[in-house]
Amino acid sequence: MATTATDARRDLLITGLRNIHAVEKQALSIMTPQVERIEHYPEVAERLRAHIEETHGQIARLDEILAGFQESHSTLKDAALSMSGGMAAITHSVAGDEILKNSFANYAFEHFEIAAYKSLLTLADDGGFSSATTLLSQSLGEEERMAAWIDDALPTITRRYATLYAEGGSSAAKV
Ligand code: MG
Ligand code: FE
User: Fold this and answer.
1) Which of 14, 38, 50, 162 is 20 to 30 A away from residue 72, measured at CA?
2) What is the Å distance from ligand 2's center to 149 Cα?
3) Which residues surround ligand 1, an ion (CB under 5 A)?
């Protein structure tokens, strides 16, 4: 069966949309257990809560774009990545420096999302799928702002961790 360039871009875009849909589900499975445990970093908890809300919106945008292509997300991909997200949160929670490791992981995760949305935007632009472009750009902006927030907050988080550690050791310097 002959595949035109437009069909190929559409197929790649749909695969990419399903992948990022699963990544967004994974994001929820990473951020939700984190936010529930935070005690000493209320500004981090607040920003995570806001980004969890944004992430629900991002998932809704992806569902909307996929529906426009008469497609849907992959339940199997969503489930697989959500499980791995939960595992990462558990791994960090056994370490005294959980807040730092989570911050590093969240910083990396946001940049993964930024790269994925930029790649999807390239496919959408090149394929002329302009309704997808608008929605994906909104999500990209949210990821970039979240990454920038973590970048800005990291020195403050690190100093508070160092203070708590000085006061009571690693066991007292929890999240
Ligand atoms: Mg996201
Ligand atoms: Fe994000």
Assistant:
1) 50
2) 11
3) 24, 27, 55, 58, 113
